[in-house]
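User: Design a sequence. Structure:
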């Protein structure tokens, strides 16, 4: 892999990990379009560490607050998980609110952990074995369109009035189940969790914030797994340079994507991403029908 390819894929990962357009699909589509080889284990680790750095850098105050607030609150875990008032946020200290949010993230992470443990290997073989690239592109194209249309529906039927303090453990579990489907290229982790959050009545900004925070444990887990796999396989001198370039690019672009998207949703809807997903999916289907590659 060249330095230019590392930069391009770092930009793709940094943007698509956080925008609701599917990073796994784009990291399959871009090499397929340009005829590049699939990124190796080392580069995959770099991309995950880059996006992990972006999340930790942007949300460090939230994450630090939750880490500090959770241990003292564990003896009161059940009361904290009880449903709040449907009309008003529960009256609680800031530490209880942080601990409760941490517990909600824990509940929402469980489906993704189980899906990754039991299903990641089968999905990896299904989509990335030699000779299966066309199948991966076809599934990605169909899901880009389908999930895009579902996001459009969620935008129009959602109440957009609830905050994270209104979130119940059932909401968190539902959003976590949606996140688990993002193992399939074309779904999008942020897209699936946004849709579930909007259907739960969360405002756009609150659904987006929970989506970012909920993804942190899984991004951390994927990053650690990629690093362990890389250490076992070893890295050449060429891979070291692409590792650093790809990881740094992914981190910088990912940070900008988080900040930009959170500002964007204050005044806009997700319609632009719906249009992009459908247009990309249709374009890929047309390329496949025309016999491209």
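Assistant: Done.
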């Amino acid at each position: 892999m060249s330095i230019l390819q590392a930069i391009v894929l770092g930009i793709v990962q940094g943007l698509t990990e956080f925008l609701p357009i599917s990073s796994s699909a784009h990291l399959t589509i871009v090499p397929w379009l340009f005829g590049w080889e699939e990124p190796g284990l080392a580069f995959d680790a770099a991309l995950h560490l880059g996006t992990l750095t972006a999340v930790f850098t942007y949300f460090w105050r939230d994450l630090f607050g939750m880490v500090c607030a959770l241990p003292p609150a564990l003896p009161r875990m059940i009361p904290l998980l009880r449903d709040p008032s449907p009309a008003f946020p529960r009256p609680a200290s800031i530490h209880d609110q942080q601990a409760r949010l941490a517990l909600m993230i824990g509940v929402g992470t469980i489906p993704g952990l189980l899906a990754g443990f039991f299903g990641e290997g089968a999905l990896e073989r299904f989509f990335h074995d030699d000779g299966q690239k066309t199948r991966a592109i076809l599934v990605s194209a169909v899901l880009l369109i389908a999930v895009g249309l579902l996001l459009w529906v969620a935008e129009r039927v959602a109440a957009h009035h609830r905050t994270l303090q209104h979130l119940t453990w059932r909401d968190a579990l539902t959003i976590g189940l949606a996140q688990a489907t993002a193992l399939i290229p074309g779904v999008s982790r942020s897209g699936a969790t946004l849709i579930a959050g909007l259907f739960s009545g969360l405002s756009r900004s609150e659904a987006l914030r929970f989506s970012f925070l909920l993804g942190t444990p899984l991004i951390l887990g994927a990053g650690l797994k990629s690093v362990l796999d890389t250490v076992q396989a070893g890295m050449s001198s060429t891979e070291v340079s692409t590792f650093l370039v790809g990881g740094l690019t992914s981190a910088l672009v990912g940070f900008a994507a988080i900040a930009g998207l959170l500002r964007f949703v204050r005044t806009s809807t997700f319609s632009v991403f719906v249009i992009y997903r459908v247009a990309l999916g249709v374009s890929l289907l047309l390329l496949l029908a025309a016999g491209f590659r």
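DSSP finds twelve helices and no strands in the chain. Residues 3-83+90-289 form one domain.
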